[in-house]
Design goal:
Blueprint (H helix, E strand, L loop, with lengths): L1 E5 L4 H7 L1 H11 L5 E6 L12 E4 L4 H4 L2 E3 L2 E5 L14 E2 L3 H17 L7 E5 L4 E3 L2 E3 L35 H8 L7 E5 L15 H4 L7 E6 L19 E5 L3 H10 L2 E5 L10 H4 L4 E5 L1 H4 L6 H7 L7 E5 H6 L3
Parallel strand pairs: 1-2, 1-7, 2-3, 10-11, 10-13, 11-12, 13-14, 14-15
Antiparallel strand pairs: 4-5, 5-6, 8-9
Length: about 325
C-alpha cells in the first residue's frame, strides 16, 4: 500500500501535531511492503526521516495562492486580502480551492511515483481522520489536532511521537559561503516573524536598540519567507559591523545555523510565531523576545511545550519586551 500524507496548512501545526502523528503511525503500523510518501513544502523533508519518498509541493500554484490556516487553506473572496484591514477580509475555507489543491497535488505525485502499482491511500491534513486509533488532521469540528494547552485547541501529546531534528552538515559550506565566516566562530542567531493581519499585539520590537549588546560577538540576522500567500516571514533592517544578514531558503539551512549558534535569540511580532519552536526541536535553547502580552495568551504555553515536547536538551525561555530593553540599557 502507498500511504500518501499531504500537509497543506501552517508550519506550527505540521511541526507539533502532524509529522509526529505520521511518525508514530509509521513506527507502529507500517508493513514491510508499504511505502510512505510525504507531500509538504520545500526543505521540510528533515521532519520525515522515516519516509520512502518526499515530494515538494511548494510550487503548486493552487497551494501558493491560498493562505495556510491551521491544517487547511483558505482563499480571499471579492477582492479582499492583506491589503485591507483584517475586519474587511472575506474568505472561504472549504470549496473549490481545496478540490483544486488536492487535484494538483495528486497529479504531481502521480508523475513522480507512477512506476508503483500499489494501492494508494491519501491522508490529507485538511480532512479529519482516525487511522489505527491515531488522529490526523483538522482540529475542529470534532478533531483533536490542537497544538496549545487549552480545551478547544489542546495538544494531545500521546497522539504524537517526537524526535530531535538532525541538522544536515552538507548545508554548512553553503551557509558559510553566504555569511563569509566560519560557523566555528561564536555568534548569536536571531530570527523574527510577523504575518499581516494576525496581530494580538501591536508592539514592534526595537531591533536596533535590543541588538546593540553584547558588542563582542557576531550577530547573524536570519531572514526567511516561503513565497506562499500571506505566510509569516522574517526580515530585519539592522545595520552595523557586527551584523550578518542571511536569507535562508530551507529548514536545512536554518538547522545548520541553529546547531552552531552560541545562542539563539528569536523575536516574534503580534503573536508567538512557529519559528520560535525550532531551536528546541534541534536540542538548543532559545530566548524568545516579545511583548509580554503575548506570553500571557493561551497561544504561548511555553512551560507545557518545554515539559511535553522539547525533551532533547533545548527549551524556550520567555523574555518580555520591556525586560529585554531594560537589560540592554
Amino acid at each position: 500500500m502507498n500511504y500518501i500524507f499531504a500537509f497543506i496548512g501552517e508550519f506550527g501545526y505540521e511541526l507539533f501535531n502532524w509529522q509526529g502523528v505520521v511518525r508514530k503511525w509509521a513506527n507502529n503500523y507500517k508493513k514491510d511492503n508499504d511505502k510512505i510518501i510525504i507531500c509538504s513544502r520545500k526543505g521540510l523533508d528533515i521532519l520525515y526521516e522515516f519516509c520512502d519518498f518526499y515530494i515538494d509541493i511548494s510550487e503548486v500554484e493552487s497551494l501558493k495562492s491560498s493562505v495556510a490556516d491551521c491544517y487547511t487553506s483558505y482563499v480571499f473572496l471579492n477582492g479582499t486580502g492583506p491589503h485591507l484591514p483584517r475586519s474587511e477580509w472575506q474568505a472561504a475555507r472549504a470549496g473549490e480551492h481545496i478540490t483544486n489543491i488536492k487535484n494538483d497535488i495528486m497529479a504531481l505525485v502521480n508523475e513522480q511515483i507512477s512506476t508503483y502499482s500499489l494501492e494508494t491511500k491519501w491522508v490529507w491534513s485538511c480532512d479529519y481522520e482516525i487511522i489505527e486509533g491515531l488522529h490526523f488532521g483538522l482540529e475542529r469540528p470534532g478533531g483533536i489536532g490542537g497544538i496549545y494547552n487549552v480545551g478547544h485547541n489542546q495538544l494531545k501529546v500521546n497522539n504524537n511521537e517526537y524526535v530531535k531534528l538532525e541538522y544536515n552538515e552538507i548545508q554548512r559550506s553553503l551557509v558559510e559561503e553566504k555569511l563569509e565566516f566560519s560557523l566555528n566562530e561564536d555568534y548569536i542567531l536571531c530570527q523574527t516573524g510577523f504575518r499581516i493581519g494576525y496581530s494580538l499585539s501591536d508592539l514592534k520590537p526595537d531591533y536596533n536598540k535590543i541588538l546593540q549588546q553584547p558588542r563582542d560577538i557576531k550577530v547573524v540576522l536570519m531572514d526567511f519567507k516561503t513565497n506562499r500567500l500571506n505566510d509569516s516571514l522574517s526580515a530585519f533592517n539592522v545595520k552595523g559591523d557586527r551584523f550578518y544578514n542571511i536569507q535562508v531558503s530551507s529548514l536545512a539551512e536554518q538547522g545548520v545555523l541553529i546547531n552552531y549558534a552560541t545562542r539563539c535569540t528569536f523575536f516574534t511580532e503580534g503573536h508567538l510565531r512557529s519559528h520560535t519552536y525550532l531551536p528546541p526541536m534541534f536540542g538548543k535553547d532559545v530566548d524568545v523576545i516579545a511583548d509580554e502580552k503575548i506570553f500571557s495568551l493561551h497561544e504561548a504555553p511555553l512551560s507545557f511545550w518545554n515539559k511535553n515536547v522539547f525533551k532533547f536538551g533545548g527549551q524556550m525561555f520567555a523574555i518580555p519586551i520591556r525586560e529585554s530593553i531594560d537589560n540592554n540599557d
